[in-house]
Amino acid sequence: MERLFKIKENCSTYKTETIAGITTFLTMVYIIVVNPTILHAAGVPFDQVFMATVISAVVGTLMMGLLANYPIGIAPGMGMNAYFASVVATNGFSYQVVFGAVFIAGVIFILLSLTELRETLIGAIPPSLKFGITSGIGLFIAFLGLKMSGIVVASEENLVGLGNLGEPVTLLSIIGLFITLALMAWNVRGGLFIGMLITGLIAFFTGELEFTQQIVSSPPVPVFFDLDIAGVFTNSLYTVVIAFLLVTIFDTTGTMIGVAEQAGFMKNGVMPRAKGALLADATATTVGSMFGTSPSSAYVESTSGVAVGGRTGFTSIIIASLFVLSIFFSPIVKVIADLPAITAPVLIIVGCLMMNGLANINWSDFTEAFPAFAILISMPLTSSIATGIAIGFITYPLMKLIRGKGKEVHWILYVFGVIFVLQMIYFPAH
């Protein structure tokens, strides 16, 4: 085991790695409640999503530890789950078709992870588009949380308006939001998860949350979904596939680099064993789609484990082991997920956390600023991440050409720009 994880070489101990694994797990375990909640709203059976969430987390995190020896947790990514639900709800597609799109994106990601094309693709996309996409997704899921809680509601006059804050669910959502905000402000480890627990306790004592089943039970039986891959081509869901692929690559790469820098793994700006790390996430996405969940991503919450000393893949093994144990708590997870007031604050706060990349955009350069702004404004207003990505990839090279800076744009962006224009004209983005 020492040869595999090189714990002494990384100046760590098994005790430290175990504590780091527990810490990271507590900061990201909220996903086993939030992810099933979002996808169940799209019609996917709750128990199926719950098991698929755990399976993808276990597969990806184990591979991260064994192949890359990094203390990084993987699970279905926030934003992609909300986008999945919006594609199903807005366009009336079956979730089997959209899972087919996730599967195709995962397979492409695996192939890219085994070649040098992944580096070319990552390097071709300018920072302003990358940060604009991540931040746009942040607004997208924060808006979803506001709607789920009833803080904002549909309005004929202004599209949306302020909801009735006196409604029990809305009031509890606001209380839960401020409790969780306080925990985050105090830098409490696992603040999101603890905030959910406290909100749940309040709901229990106010009668809004009732437990009619046992807390612990045998885990639901996972089954393979009958993926409708042919339906992806029949319905021209090419933009959806590209959206799943690009966002997953950007999210995972950015998170892994951030965690690697914090842990001191980066060498001359290069992340060692990046191929194994990307392959872990790509495999988790592909396997997850087969069981019933949206794309997976490396979790930035992994920095909490690194902060307490996690330096090797043994931390990831601990994280994966705890996810396995969570399958015995599906009854309580299902009850908690049925109350939007518990999960909505998480969506709002995670949305905020995803906005930090905006500081890295050069707002004084209009050719960089406007494409990022276009992505930001279009994603929440159209309820489509794919549409936001398409608009960004069209406007960026166009702005650069108008300004006489066309040579600064990688040829891949011109290709994507043309593809997205054709897609939006002949095969309207979903």
Strand order of the largest sheet: 1-4
What is the average per-residue confidence, as pLDDT, rounded to a whole number?
88
Q: Give the CA-CA distance, first to last residue.
A: 48 Å
What's the total number of strands? Answer: 4
What string gives the helices and strands in order? HHHHEHHHHEEHHHHHEHHHHHHH
Q: How many helix segments?
A: 20
The level of helicity is 55-70%
The largest pleated sheet is described as:
2 strands, antiparallel
Q: Give the overall shape, derived from the CA principal axes.
A: globular
Strand-residue proportion: under 5%
The assigned structural class equals mainly alpha
Gyration radius, rounded: 21 Å
Unreliable sequence segments: none
Protein architecture, described:
By secondary structure, the protein is mostly helical. A two-stranded antiparallel sheet has the order 1-4. It is globular, with a radius of gyration of 21 Å. Helix 4 runs antiparallel to helix 13 (274-291), helix 4 (46-68) runs antiparallel to helix 15 and helix 6 packs across helix 12 (238-263). The chain has helices spanning 2-5, 14-28, 31-40, 46-68, 80-91, 95-113, 117-124, 127-149, 168-185, 191-205, 229-234, 238-263, 274-291, 302-307, 313-326, 330-337, 340-353, 366-382, 385-402, 411-426; strands at residues 74-76, 152-155, 159-162, 296-298. The protein has 20 helices and four strands. The model has no long low-confidence stretch (mean pLDDT 88).
